[in-house]
Design goal:
single chain; disordered N terminus; nine-stranded antiparallel sheet; globular
Length: about 230
């Protein structure tokens, strides 16, 4: 086979191979720039050392990080993951808010409350008797869905790896690689916007705890490829 034929065959194989997923990792090891995005600090979050590496700790009162850009713009499928540690505090805590900015009003959310029309992804926790349970939420112009299971409690204190995924049909939520729930939901890709970690983006329901890492992938990862806690 000629060199030209070999090159053409290689090009053909490459064109038939599935596109590689785009992935962005945010490591919370500083308070100025995370994942290549400038960060605006609110309150006095603390950079700490932990068994999972450096992390940012939030006091549940007025600590937060605002990101001037966001991942997963235009993604039709997704995986959103984080390594975090809840530390008690108020019952409702909204600790990661990824939002599409309204192109008409310029708003990321309504000034008050927890219900607004903006497409968004949320990670939340509910605190109950020394334990917590996860709330994952997706909203787009096509529909919305919350995955929340109060019976699936986890003790406060340890670090956890959490994930929400969408494969084009089914929305799923996992804690430490274990599926906690799923539901079919229609979804349309998000536009540009912002991210808030430590509180909902309109400063409702502050988070008490720490975040060490987040990862964003534009495909639905299987459980064996999700973030895991270091051994």
């Amino acid at each position: 086979m000629s060199r030209c034929s070999i090159a053409f065959a290689a090009l053909l194989v490459a064109s038939l191979a599935p596109a590689r997923a785009a992935q962005t990792v945010w490591t919370f090891d500083n308070l100025s720039r995370i994942g290549g995005i400038p960060v605006k600090v609110e309150g006095n979050p603390q950079l700490i050392e932990s068994p999972v590496g450096k992390a940012v700790r939030f006091d549940g009162k007025d600590d937060a990080l605002f990101f001037s850009d966001r991942p997963l713009v235009g993604a039709k499928t997704f995986t959103i993951e984080a390594i975090f540690r809840p530390e008690g505090g108020d019952f409702e805590q909204r600790w990661m808010h990824i939002v599409e900015t309204d192109p008409v009003t310029g708003l990321d959310a309504l000034p008050a409350g927890t219900s607004d029309p903006n497409p968004r992804f949320m990670f939340e926790v509910r605190i109950k008797d020394g334990s917590w349970y996860l709330d994952a939420f997706v909203n787009s112009k096509a529909g919305s869905k919350a995955l929340i299971f109060p019976e699936k409690l986890h003790p406060i204190g340890p670090w956890y790896a959490v994930a929400q995924t969408y494969d084009g049909k089914t929305y799923r939520m996992c804690v430490d690689g274990v599926l906690e729930g799923e539901a079919d939901v229609p979804f349309t890709p998000h536009g540009p916007g912002h991210v808030m970690v430590g509180v909902r983006i309109n400063h409702v329901n502050w988070f008490k705890g720490a975040v060490a890492k987040a990862r964003f992938t534009d495909s639905a990862l299987p459980p064996d490829q999700l973030l895991k806690l270091p051994k």
